[in-house]
Amino acid sequence: GENVEQHPSTLSVQEGDSAVIKCTYSDSASNYFPWYKQELGKGPQLIIDIRSNVGEKKDQRIAVTLNKTAKHFSLHITETQPEDSAVYFCAAPRYNFNKFYFGSGTKLNVKP
Amino acid sequence: EAQVTQNPRYLITVTGKKLTVTCSQNMNHEYMSWYRQDPGLGLRQIYYSMNVEVTDKGDVPEGYKVSRKEKRNFPLILESPSPNQTSLYFCASRTTGPTGELFFGEGSRLTVL
């Protein structure tokens, strides 16, 4: 299978600062890496993803970078806002996206 | 509105009393799956289904059963619940396209005493 490790488990930043969450994976055959955001009392929701043929992808204040050699990918949130406070999960689906392997989650707290 | 609906949202039960958590999606998705979320462990896949009558084990299938008799429904069955199945459960669905995006329900919090 796949082993996905996520760090840190908690992250507290001041509003306006940047936040970075990092994940590593073990299976070099993995080629698609999504990030999900889970707000309190809700199910996770996809916020950004990246495929192995690119090194970086941006969507407004959110970006994801991928280093296939080192087998790690990171979520970057710039100019954080209180509504960014949530739990974030990385994932590495395998086997035609049938099996999903998630990281252990990062609880991000953005202080006003 | 496109959604995945789980019921019940909250349940307290006792060891050994069979229960079913229902999941229904209105997006005509072929693929559906179940996860449990536990502190420090993230989301772990229990079972998944690629289509009607096609199911397979995820990483933590022990103590659970599933069935997929209709495309829209994918119930999770706990035949004899135990306290270690106390958890937050999520159902999700997706298309079979290349994006792999999962659409999650709002979760079912289960407590087994």
Description:
- The complex is a heterodimer of chains A (112) and B (113).
- Chain A has 112 residues and is mainly β.
- Chain A is built from no helices and 10 strands.
- In chain A, the strands form 2 sheets. A 5-stranded antiparallel sheet of chain A has the order 1-3-8-7-6, with no helix packed on it. Chain A has a 5-stranded mixed sheet with strand order 2-10-9-4-5, with no helix packed on it.
- With 113 residues, chain B is mostly beta strands.
- Helix content of chain B is 0%, strand content 50%.
- In chain B, strands 2, 4, 5, 6, 9, 10 and 11 form a 7-stranded mixed sheet that branches.
- Chain B is globular, with a radius of gyration of 13 Å.
- In chain B, 40% of the residues are buried.
- The chains are: A mainly beta (112), B mainly beta (113).
- The A-B interface holds A 1, 6, 9, 32, 34, 36, 41-46, 49, 89, 91, 93, 97-105 and B 4, 31, 33, 35, 40-45, 48, 50, 56, 58-59, 90, 92, 94, 99-102, 104-107.
Helix content of chain B: under 10%
Low-confidence stretches of chain A: none
Question: Quick one: overall form of chain A?
Answer: globular
The number of distinct β-strands of chain A equals 10
N/C terminus separation of chain A: 41 Å
Total E-strand runs of chain B: 11
The main pleated sheet of chain B reads as: 7 strands, mixed
Alpha-beta classification of chain A:
mainly beta
Rg over C-alpha atoms of chain A, rounded to the nearest angstrom: 13 Å
Largest sheet of chain A: 5 strands, antiparallel
Order of helices and strands of chain B: EEEEEEEEEEE
Cα-to-Cα separation, first versus last residue of chain B? 36 Å
* Percent of residues in β-strands of chain A: over 45%
Please, how many helices of chain B? 0
Spatial ordering of strands, largest sheet of chain A: 1-3-8-7-6
Counting DSSP H or I runs of 4 or more residues, the number of helices of chain A is 0
Helix-residue proportion of chain A: under 10%
